[in-house]
């Protein structure tokens, strides 16, 4: 009976996370236990639901999550570890997470939509900055080309 209650708790929590993801316009393609996988704005989104952590997030709490993340392409994937309550990081976990790429996010269910929105807004700004850089470089190349054409005449 205890196992059934634990699974029901995980399922209920995962259902709440699913609802939050759908509100953030993430199209869920796959669900297996506490792992959700979907698509949002040409990005893959992996979500790991963890309702076991109550106060402090330890390395053992994120090992399975990080193993799955290691298998994904980093360029267009965002991975999100979601807890049921706000938690602190143990010192060792904080050090381990500090070296992770910025496409790996840690949050709680209350902050999930804000974190997702913030991540994709940052991505959008990054793309705009990249476009500005590309446009500037193209303009520089065009000026050099025009200058060399003028000198040839």
UniProtKB/TrEMBL annotation:
Highest rank taxon of the organism: Eukaryota
Protein name per its UniProtKB record: 1604_t:CDS:1
Species per Swiss-Prot/TrEMBL record: Racocetra fulgida
